[in-house]
């Protein structure tokens, strides 16, 4: 950290992932002075993990509203269709994003690494005169006078009227504010997901041969392979002109993702080349296998691993996204805590919905908090209704999103058993145009902006 942050701020944003950065940019674009905002993060730049890789239509619209999508669009890949196929690589459902054309001027999904999204949002914040103070890990919070005093591991203290928790699923701010975070159906972590797909490995890798004939970049196509062992996702990560930005790579990088059944034990937290190759050969599509018995025409080997991670999936939502925290006396009005992104809600990763809803939350939160600050009665408790109403609305949308992602998880689970009735129901529905359009519509977020 080159310089300490201010000790006083109107707004303190804890967490500088996509949602924290988007909230800061939105606040500034809606008229809040840069010097009134302090953004902190617990890790140094570049030490965060990159999970999300897709920006859907509704999120694209939100990013465009604050002038933050043009560069992402130029750096990313416009996904035209997504194939769902069986373990042998035979497609039985093709999602065509062009069906969104009547409803948005962005009838596609933008494929781009979350790390690159953060990079561009941080550049925008810096261009507006802001910065992120790192590393500052929050450890406590208490009301003082007309604000909230947040303390950090370093011993530093920042007092703010508004504290925005964008510090992830293990949010310290949410915890010290006394806000619960549980599965909406009351399920515990071990029971909140299908054991076949609740342990996921993601990796950014290169292959020893070109896959352009399998996964063309333009028009862009990705594939989700489903077999009895689990799911396997493959697609190009970025155009060659931008892939060097993150990794210094000169060859195409692909994102692969696959499930590991919990009965097989806990997978390595950061699997290397040998482990990933074993998984790819075991239940990846035959065209990606290095095993000549599965891929006799042209065995394909993983060449280099740039990044990998393993994580468990489950659903949870905070019981409220807004809390007023008062002091012990009538003179201590305290301050306001609002939750955004993973601090507010988490979902199964199927459909790439988590970061998308979080970004829409963040951009809307920036506009709402700015409007509240700029109102004549910002310090009047009755005027907090504006923030409460926004929090309630976003809570409803998050609840709806969790239901949808659980439904998608069931959908994927059904396809893992080709002898089940649900499999054939889904297979038949996959050939119905209306069903395919509804699936794309739900993925796009346009019905849940």
From TrEMBL:
Pfam families: FAD_binding_3. The keyword Transmembrane helix applies. The chain crosses the membrane at residues 408-429. The keyword Transmembrane applies. Keywords: FAD, Flavoprotein, Membrane, Oxidoreductase, Transmembrane, Transmembrane helix. Residues 9-208, 334-376 form the FAD-binding domain. GO terms for molecular function: FAD binding; oxidoreductase activity, acting on paired donors, with incorporation or reduction of molecular oxygen, NAD(P)H as one donor, and incorporation of one atom of oxygen. Its cofactor is FAD. This is FAD-binding domain-containing protein. It comes from Tetrapyrgos nigripes. The lineage of its organism: Eukaryota, Fungi, Dikarya, Basidiomycota, Agaricomycotina.
